Amino acid sequence: MARWKRGQAAQGVKQAVRYAFGGVCDATLTAKTADGALAAAGYADAVMTRYIVENGTIRDDLLTRSQLKNWVDGVDPVTSERRGRDLESAVADLILDATINAPKSFSIAAMLDTELADAYEDLQDRLRGRIIKLWQSELNARRGKQGAIREDLARIEVVELQHERSRSLDPHKHRHLWLNVKVLGLDGKWSNVDTRVALRFQNVVNAEGDLASRTDPTWVAALAAKGLTLNSDGEIAQLQHLVRPLSKRSAQIEANKATHLRQWKEQHSGEEPSATLLTQIDQWAWAAGRPNKPGQLNEEDWASVVMSELHAIDPELGRTRDVNAAMSVAIEDLDLQLLAAKAIVDADSRSTATGGRFSDMDVRAGAIRAIAASGVIADRTDLVDIVDEVTSLAARTYTVTLLSDPDIPAHIKRRMATSTATLKATVAHLTESLAAPGEAPSAAEIADVAKAIGPDRTLDEGQVEGAASIASSDRIVTISGAAGTGKTTMLKVAGASLRRRGRAMIIVAPTKKASAVAGRETKSSSSSLHQLLHDHGWRWINNEAGAVEWSCLKIGDVDPTTGRTYVGPYMAIRPGDRIVVDEAGMLDLEAARALLDVVSRTGAGVALVGDQHQALPVGHSGAMALFWRRATRQVELTTIHRFEDPTWGDLSLRLRRPDDKEEALRTAQELISTGHVVLASSDADARNAMVGAWLSAADAHRSIALVTATHAEAQSVSEEIQAHRIAAGTVDTRELAIGQNGQAIFAGDVVQTRRNDTSADVQNRQNWVVKSVTDRHVLLAAASDSTDLRRITHEYAGSHLHLAYATTVYGVQGETTDLSVVGPDVDASGLYVGLTRGKAHNMAVVVAPTEASARTKLVETMQRGSLEETMDKSRAAARREFNRAARQVVGTVASESPTSANGPGLG
Q1: Nearest-CA neighbor of 726 among 279, 261, 250?
Q2: CB-hemisphere CA count at 13 Å for 618?
Q3: Per DSSP, what are the bridge partners of residue 175?
Q4: 0.90 cut: is pTM over it?
Q5: What is the pLDDT of residues 550-573, one digit of tens each?
Q6: How many CB atoms lie within 10 A of CB 796?
Q7: CA separation (Å) from 472 to 505, 691, 745?
Q8: Strand partners, 180
Q9: What distance lies between CA 592 and its chain's CA centroid?
Q10: N or C: which end of the chain has fewer CB within 10 A?
Q11: pLDDT in tens, 94-113
Q12: Do 873 and 866 meet the contact criterion of CB atoms below 8 Å apart?
């Protein structure tokens, strides 16, 4: 129910557009200074509430707009006294913004019934009080040289914004809590909150929101009194069916708004619309197409029309429901062992980016979420002991401890699920036991095969060695290649060489999309890796705790998923055949363990071909690193073939793996000086640059990849491009489909399917153009071939289809385009992968005021965390994190200062 929405440091605060009514939220981040606070509060009352939390006690007062600006800027709004030192960095956070929200069905309930509206407000009040008290008691400031000293907090200050509607004027009651980064320590001094701790603690805050929305007895009783209940997803079961129709209407509103706004801008070149005009556009967009729409909207008009639409969707809404007494599991009946197991499953699932490591905070958050879903209904004070008990039991029973130093801060990721630690050891052991050397064809033989495939084909030295290694009789081979080094060409030759020797090459990949492409281009058998594993008896199901359990059927066993007898694999793999895992950097440890079993049973060999410097797996990483260390043949491809400019190929290699910080600095400077970096003053400017690049490429009939840091940002960029295309008439808004999360999708839009579907013959992360929308289906054409058509159902579209003008690194992994643009805040793999998709030109957009600050940001982005394929590496990573953390020191500065690139409060 509570969600963290911290903006990038350069933005500081949220800016919201003034919509037609007070309390309408826009999630656009644009502000750099305290002036942004006034824009964000522009639709609020003349005064805003400030909550002061001091030693566990909350009091409040009111701030005027000018006081709010001073408060955000680190000045006491009453005395005008500066609080501590000015933030020296131009990109430092001024506030941290958390959002208290809930499923849309809660807002619909509040709109339908005034008593439920009051109960929902009270629920949010109680949650707000708990969150801000937790911030005061659990967060800390950093003091001293390089922020070495941890200072507990005596006082924090929070401003709350209450919103009633979404951007599209749907019922959506939620609140923003602005935590000022200026905090008062127990020593009576103002300094900056440790943002690293604050961000990690938000996992606990989010879990508290889930707990409140599902277990608060007053709220649940208020629902029960109206005959309403919560389902297993936390939604109000009797109202959930209203959410989708409202989302569809919301999508049409956004299309209306985009069309009108773009048309206005085309007629008023260089001008920006006023707040009054934006209000008029919003009112028009909201009312367009509604029967009996009011000419000039006001609060009563809005409520009346929405209520009418809700009743039109469900004419039975007005009936009185019987009181439905809420059933609660008694606290004493809770299965603590199961809750503890669920807590670790939750923490482990969130740990893939840190080598499987998680913190005590993460275990606590997992425990809270497990209790929230348990069916218990109780006051939060009655759940304190059970949360503590489940947290302690989970840590004791299901984790290994990587560090055992005293007084380790709770945010340090120093634990690992026992299952993950066992998995790392198992894969290492299996790899080592299978590795056996063999013989390889000569370079001359490989050259002959290459010429037989294509007379003009010449392989470089690395490709020859790679093809020979794959065609060898060694059981385990690894080929690591930078982007554009010709891995596909190498695989074609290796496959032909194997076939000459009477052996087969079977290509698999972690995704169906990648395996299909590789198999087609190399003329080899192919399947997704999981399809091959399933064929050979492996099954994966979720256990009671939610963990994915892998097991292998023997011939004659009953398949638990189908009830049929397993008769063995359909795809014959013979001794000596070569299983090639393409895009092997994305191979996760669970699949690797199963693959090694298949290799062992069939007598085949395995070759991993990929790049650990590109996108990592969704699950636990490190498989390719384990294979690399134990393979009897290791080949590194370094000659670049993809790019039109050979100097860019050389630069991309340095970008992939700079030797040290000095090399990273030189690489960053060269990126800037050669025109591969564009500076933006804000995220909004960066987004505009990406949108403009896509539109220009489309006009020039060139393919382009837009790479963003997050899926949410990809969708924001995609929706902005869609809005431009709506205004230009290049998509047809008369044909509407609803994609994931109620997203509007029109004929002409570029979209991506997000789930393999054999009946429709579509694959996960495959790009398409919408050809048409009918009542029965959505017709798609392949992005690269307009004659390659597929039909998907509206049900599939609603769950597994979204806009794809921009995407994350996982969406472009393996793609080649004419141009590529990488947005702000990607990680090292996102920067490298994004800047190696375009054959003709690649560009990074960096939010920075100067080239010097852009260079610093690029260097920081290039600093990769090391892969933690072994327990020793995970322990070392936890130690580095601990050494970087602020320590609790009384009286003197710690004798051993942690090394950190960040100053106090910049965590």
Answers
A1: 261
A2: 6
A3: 100, 162
A4: no
A5: 999 999 999 988 899 999 999 889
A6: 20
A7: 12, 48, 49
A8: 95
A9: 24
A10: C
A11: 888 888 888 889 999 999 99
A12: yes
